[in-house]
Design goal:
about 600 residues, mainly beta
Length: about 600
């Protein structure tokens, strides 16, 4: 049934956090009870109910051009701002767009800018159409709501409760500051032109609608001072926090081939900062190769990021996967799907950068199964930064087993990495430890593997380690006394899992004091013999023979083919390997089994 304003409707009063005032809504509209979930969208829903069930609000009123050149005209339900200068500044007594209203900014170019300051004591309601071929800034310290019926199509848009510094408009870095009590809420549809941007700036921001900027940028910044940098790639930085900043996305944000950037900063030690995503954020790689980037960056001292919903920077049309970062003092992963997968290219990376990070079956930041799920679609990097005030040390704790068969798991800790549960990398999977990153040499830091814990890798090249931020990235090196495999810098194994040519230490021969390669006519190979008679273990070329005791082969010692499956499905347990040079140690019986 068509809904319209009527005296037969019954209304009640609710408090609007966007308008910072009491507003009338339909009697059937749900309020925010004392125990209800804290969410800015509730205020937006109340205002949308008012717009749809009550009298439609009118268009902008009391417009005055205070800088630049422009004219304002109104015809019926359409307001047109004809701008002839590259920049224009307008003051408005009020700026609302009813559901049947249209506002058009006609500007001289896509880079032209119209700054609109709204002097109303109430927030602005954008419920109809807002069109522009250039950049439009809407500034109202009492809040801005894009309702469910809003249709915004612009070259670029800023909606802010912070005022912009006029002097900064002359350059590329536009500075917004203030302590407006309102919020910026989007329940409608906002679209920027290809390569354009949408920036929502306030202490509290909520999106439950849709925001799109193809090959462009969607930027949400929560604080009391924010810099929008338009020089080159568009960037947004919160330079000063606000009390209890909050960004919530339960809607859809899309910037294929571009960037989606959500950042919030708290003011003072008693304040908090929250970024909560339960919606869908997409930044796919374009068919032409431009990768997407998604960043949820909370306050590194007092902030938290809650990751749920979908973060998708994959490459479904070809090319390489993009980049996803979810960082704050504390990062919690809920039921989330994060992907930088690239079926026809290189998989991208998902980075988590908290204070401390714990992988645990319960009570941690992620479970081992969640990490494994992340590795199915991403190279996954956990990086700790000990900047917080919650007693963290920049450590990583793995207390729940992780099993993965593709992509790279990188553990980067400012201090220590503690492995207390099995890590099992198979197939094309790989592992990297980077620890002691708070200092150049990493002094006092280490990675530790608890007794009885296994760290399995499919081959030696699937593991690297680095101590200190200036330390060398090291491969898996093996040595026993006066003999080492490889030159001591390169990996001791080939990609097939065979030991490389050995080097020997010589400080007795005249003119020698160091490591020297054994002279062999063929590459040194390492294999396992079983069932043979122990003779001819080495041939003249320095090759270890494989024998299972069966007749055949060029030397009559057998083919060794019965162990081919076990060797091709090999696994190296590096749990006991530590800094420097490891050793090959055999104890007890050597058992083979297929690792299927």
């Amino acid at each position: 049934m068509h809904r319209h304003g009527s005296l037969n409707h019954i209304y009640r009063l609710v408090w609007s956090h966007v308008l910072n005032a009491w507003v009338a809504v339909a009697e059937t509209s749900r309020g925010r009870g004392k125990g209800a979930r804290r969410k800015l969208a509730a205020a937006a829903a109340a205002m949308a109910a008012l717009a749809l069930g009550g009298p439609a609000c009118a268009g902008p009123a009391g417009g005055q051009v205070v800088a630049g050149t422009a004219t304002i005209s109104q015809s019926g339900t359409t307001t047109t701002i004809q701008q002839t200068s590259q920049q224009a500044t307008l003051n408005w007594a009020s700026f609302n767009v009813g559901s049947k209203e249209t506002v058009n900014f006609v500007q001289p170019s896509a880079s032209a800018l119209a700054v609109n300051r709204i002097l109303d004591h109430n927030g602005s309601q954008i419920l109809g159409r807002l069109n522009a071929n250039g950049q439009v800034y809407l500034i109202n310290p009492n809040g801005i709501l894009f309702g469910r019926t809003a249709q915004v199509n612009v070259g670029a848009l800023v909606a802010s409760t912070l005022d912009v510094d006029n002097a900064s408009l002359g350059g590329n870095k536009h500075v917004f500051s203030g302590n407006g009590a309102g919020s910026v809420v989007n329940d409608g549809a906002i679209r920027a032109a290809d390569g354009g941007y949408v920036a929502l700036i306030s202490a509290k921001i909520s999106n439950s609608g849709t925001i799109a900027a193809h090959a462009g940028n969607v930027l949400l910044g929560a604080g009391s001072e924010v810099t929008l940098d338009l020089g080159g790639p568009v960037r947004l930085q919160v330079t000063q926090g606000a009390i209890d900043t909050l960004i919530e996305n339960g809607g859809a944000i899309r910037a294929d081939g571009g960037q989606v950037y959500l950042t919030a900063k708290a003011a003072g030690q008693l304040a908090s900062s929250v970024i909560n995503n339960t919606g869908v954020i997409e930044a796919h790689t374009l068919a032409t190769g431009e990768k997407g980037q998604i960043v949820l960056l909370g306050d590194m001292h007092k902030g938290s990021v809650h990751v749920a919903g979908v973060l998708d920077a994959s490459a479904p049309q070809g090319g390489d996967g993009g980049f996803v970062e979810t960082s704050a003092n504390r990062v919690d992963i809920g039921t989330a799907r994060v992907s930088t997968a690239a079926p026809r290219g290189k998989t991208g990376t998902w980075l988590i950068d908290p204070n401390d990070f714990t992988v645990a079956a319960s009570g941690g930041n992620m479970t081992g199964a969640d990490v494994a799920d992340a590795l199915a679609s991403n190279n996954f990097s956990i990086m700790t930064t000990s900047m917080g005030t919650t007693g963290g040390n920049g450590d990583i704790h793995v207390n729940d087993a992780i099993n993965w068969s593709a992509n790279k798991l990188t553990l980067t800790a400012e201090r220590n990495i503690n492995i207390n549960a099995n890590l099992n990398a198979t197939g094309t999977a790989s592992l990297a430890y980077q620890y002691g990153q708070a200092t150049a040499d990493g002094a006092g830091s280490a990675y530790r593997v608890s007794p009885g814990v296994a760290v399995n890798i499919p081959n030696a090249s699937a593991f690297t380690w680095q101590k200190g931020s200036a330390g060398r990235v090291n491969n898996l090196l093996l040595g026993n006394g006066k003999v080492r495999f490889g030159d001591g810098v390169e990996n001791s194994f080939t990609s097939d899992g065979l030991l490389k040519t050995p080097f020997y230490f010589d400080n007795t021969t005249a003119g020698r004091d160091g490591w020297f390669q054994l002279t062999l006519r063929r590459p040194f190979e390492f294999a396992v013999a079983a069932g043979g008679n122990g003779s001819n273990a080495w041939n003249n070329d320095g090759q270890v023979l494989i024998s299972d005791g069966r007749p055949g082969g060029p030397d009559g010692m057998g083919t060794g083919s019965s162990y081919a499956t076990a060797l091709s499905n090999r696994s190296l347990n590096i749990a006991g390997y530590q800094e420097g040079m490891g050793s090959i140690v055999t104890t007890g019986t050597l058992n083979f089994s297929s690792l299927n």
